[in-house]
Design goal:
It is a single chain. The chain is mainly α. The protein is built from eleven helices and no strands. Helix 1 packs antiparallel against helix 2 and helix 9 packs antiparallel against helix 10. The longest helix is centred in the middle third of the chain and has 27 residues. The radius of gyration is 19 Å and the shape is elongated.
Length: 201
Amino acid sequence: MVERGRPRSFDRDAALASAMEVFWIKGYEAAALSELTAAMGIGSPSLYAAFGSKEGLFREAVELYGRTEGPQLWDGVEAAPTARQAIEGFLLATATAFTRPGKPRGCLVTLSAINLTGASPSVCEAMRQQRAFGRRGLEARLKRAVAEGELPADLDLGGVAAFYLTVQQGMSIQARDGATREVLEKVAHGAMAAWEPLTAS
């Protein structure tokens, strides 16, 4: 079916990237439509025409965040030769990513999830799925380590993954509160001191 009407007079990808940064800084609830449209350089009619709603825009922004910001955290998890190195690298990469100059501090997914009272059930579920993705990623790397004989077969994979993901989520909040990369690296090294007790058979 041929679309009718005037073509969009703005760069949709650039507008979405700008909206992502607003949500990253403000969270879903606190990001006002006026702030979003100002950052995107469009009016509210164009926002609704292109993204359907604030919720639709938010969901696309979260997907964009995962595509653009996720690899620097997750690529090393699979590539690391041991599970311990994978988890440690994940936390140290987090310390760097969450404190980069010129970028909002912390994690969009973690910080936006703190307050979603105005969001629909579908958006809340989408955020739960994003958080579950992180746990599954760590769990999969631990499962591989069990298969390779690095970790014991009776290891509570879910418990270990949940512990380190909780540390990472806490680092996001600390980064937003002004923690430096060096401070977050100390948190990461402290968390790794729990590796042996957590992974003992």
